[in-house]
Amino acid sequence: MKQDGKWSGFRKLVLVDRIKECEDITSFYFKAEDGGKLVKHEAGQYLPFKIVTEEAAYKDVLRTYSLSIIPNDELYRISVKKIPGGLISTYLHERLQIGDCIEAMIPMGLFTLKEESAEAPITLISGGIGITPLLSMLYQAADTRKSVHFIQAVQNSKLHPFKTDIHMIAELKGFRNTVFYSNPLAEDEKGRDYDEIGFVTKEWLSTEANLESTFYLCGPPVFMKALEESLLGLGVSKDRIYYELFSQ
């Protein structure tokens, strides 16, 4: 292993904490089992890994989950939605305990913030669990950007991860934060829990989004397709739209 934390192949990471973010999403925090430094990932990258087990169903099954933490060389966090019938997501939620290990490769991926001036506006739009790479971007942007609009689309308050984190960053940095609930609960209150009912539409974007932004999008395929078509239809050039698809 090199001094900068880089390694080749797989390296054991040990689970040091797990936190439930909402009804179906839990965050898992890992450090290097050998106590060394990690590779400082770029915001938006993902972590390829496999479960450490002799059970045939899981052995050598590789999965990739976006890192949802500010880039650093000490601690990784992945935030995982439990998918009904999902092999690895179910294992993580139900069986992986503090002290257990995974075997991980170095962070990878090209869905990262592009180099621009601090004044260049960016808009981050997430759907559901697609928030994870964009959250890492938001943490980084808090130190490097002056104009950020974070748009988060979820169903309701029970399925609303990282609400406090995003609100605090927006308040501290003066960023704009807009929350859409597609199916609010009876107890959900507009203006407190969310800002808009329904979906992020072309009409809403035309009046509420800064169309001079660079846009970063992440969510389910249908969500992404609709957003891209809307932005292109509003005159946003394709080279200012970056996205990563998250299947459900």
TrEMBL record:
Cofactor dependence: FAD
InterPro entries for this protein: Cbr1-like_FAD-bd_dom, FAD-bd_FR_type, FNR_nucleotide-bd, MRET, OxRdtase_FAD/NAD-bd, Riboflavin_synthase-like_b-brl
Record-given protein name: Nitric oxide dioxygenase
Pfam families per record: FAD_binding_6, NAD_binding_1
EC number: 1.14.12.17
EC class: oxidoreductase
The species this protein was found in: Cellulosilyticum lentocellum (strain ATCC 49066 / DSM 5427 / NCIMB 11756 / RHM5) (Clostridium lentocellum)
PROSITE patterns, per database record: FAD_FR
Example of a GO MF term: 2 iron, 2 sulfur cluster binding
Alphabetical UniProt keywords: 2Fe-2S, Dioxygenase, FAD, Flavoprotein, Iron, Iron-sulfur, Metal-binding, Oxidoreductase
Domain FAD-binding FR-type: 8-114
